[in-house]
Amino acid sequence: MPSLKELKARKRSDYPYILEYRTRWSDNDMYAHMNNAMYTVLYDAVINTYLVEACGMRPHHSPQHALVVHSQIDYFGSISFPKVAELALRVARLGHSSVTYDVALFEKGVDEVRSVGEFVQVFVERETGRPNAATGMSAAYKEGLEKILVQGDAKSKI
Question: Which sequence ranges are marked TM in the entry (predicted)?
């Protein structure tokens, strides 16, 4: 696991997939910055946007879908309306039926990372709600996720 110093040093170029998000007034909390819960919503959104765009996931129809089984976020700075956030995504580990994502939030035009998180998803069969022990995640999901797998990170068998 990277240290906080290493996480704070993350750059956009560390992430192969970037998605912009225009903050909304309702994203702010009473302290005039984006509420912490919104980071989780946005991290989930960038992951699922990637799964739809690059992996062929059809959320209401695909035979497999992904469940979040772990998430964590470290915060280093704030962002608030009307700024534009850049959500950055990469795969840290790719297993038989699971994936660990590194996600970061940057403010457009600002070099310093605002937050870095980790999400772990397990791909399960829609009919059973369980991973497919024989095949794991679908080949299309695996192929799409391999495109943003950070080189040098070990593939695990989770």
Answer: none
